[in-house]
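Hey L., structure's done. Input below.
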Amino acid sequence: MPHRSTEDSNLAPDRDLEARRRHWVLFRAIDRRRNPPLRRTDITVTDEPTVRRAVKAAALGNAMEWFDFGIYSYLALTIGKVFFPSGSSTTSLLSSFATFAVAFLVRPLGGAYFGPLGDRIGRKKVLALTMIMMSLGTVCIGLIPSYDAIGLFSPALLIFFRLIQGFSTGGEYGGASTFIAEYAPDKKRGYFGSFLEMGTLIGYTGAAGIVLVLNTVLGPEAMVHWGWRLPFLIAGPLGLVGLYLRLRLDETPAFQKFEAEQSHGATDAHARTEEEPSHLSANHPGKKLGEIFTQNWPAILLCIALVGAYNITDYMLLSYMPTYLTDTLGYNETHGLLILLVTMVALICLLPTVGKLNDRYGRKPLLMSGMVGFLVLAIPAFLLVKRGSLVAVSGGMALLGLSLVCLLGTMSAALPALFPTSVRYGSLSIGYNLAVSLFGGTTPLVITALMDAFDKNVMVPAYYTMGAALVGVIAVALMKETAQQPLDGSPPSVATEEEARAMIASRTHEPRF
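Output:
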């Protein structure tokens, strides 16, 4: 057995320590390539008052957009009599809902135009433009002469201005949800995102409230003659308020950082870009659309499935239900609107809580709860509504509302996280509006037609809702959890300097010898 000298024994610990140091250097080199160390400049620290101001402006602007859009659905019966007079009430109603659906057919075109435009010139400018177009379209509807006055030109003008509404709305949800998501800190994105849907519900509530007051004060005959115009004309001053709020905002931090990186990259590659044809510019709209469809199509398909299921349930409850109660079940129109108003006010109160819950427990559990709720509770809810008493109808609406609020309070945070910053506005606008066009906006028309085909079967809305919810369950199961994580392509965003330092410390590995 070889003899080990005392000198070798004394050097062994030093050799071991040196070997461990070499291994640490190698480990750090590999780790830095895989997980580059965070620097303070890599983290966005949000200013709470600025975030709240941005969320308020986006949500209030969204409320005014959906006030304009919701008016039509709550006046569907009256509009059918004004623009589509016929011997059959069903034909008149179907014509009215067909015109309602027409606006949704052009929403994908609006999304394809405004979305990439928002990724090129910024979220703020495009959101201001959509506000102007929506307000103008709505006011013009209130000025159209009736069918009795100008004949077929009347419904033709109605369809034209509905197309303007639909085109402008194509850039609204994707832009507003992107705007809030990019402003909010990562750990509070669900909470702040819930205020966007609060704005949607406030818009719907305001529209339903005004229609309810006018129906009560003026009566059916005056509403048909001139009263229906008043809610549309209110859109003018409301649109100016929304435009003022949006123009006061700064661009989102994520887009500012992306724009700065693009400018820096363009400066570094000046010699190369001089030789490139201008149509290959990264900001060219054709290239943006190409990037969206070639690199992000799996996320767009998932977005379509999620939004399709969500919008069928949403429009069924918030847009179609008053007509279902009045036209199908013979319920008092005023009572139906009143119940819907109470339901929406309750949803508004619950939305911030749902936002906090999906920040804490994740987007998927809340979305799955909503989809499973519609799948399981749709039949019991419609059986209650079918009974017709005030208590039964309110109970059925409550069951549907509790399922819907889980989706309302979560989608606006979950959907923007599906896409990277460079194409977030465009991808979300296209995916969202394709789904709304195919499934959401057609919901009142499809349900009315199916009920007519199935001999006035009052349970058709329940079955249609269940089918949508089943698709939603599958889509939620396939999506990734994104709660409390940075948006793809955006820097980490925190609420305080303390959170920034803690995040940097968590990514810094100290050697142990």
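Residues 269-282 have pLDDT under 50 and may be disordered. Strands lie at 44-45, 493-494.

-- N.
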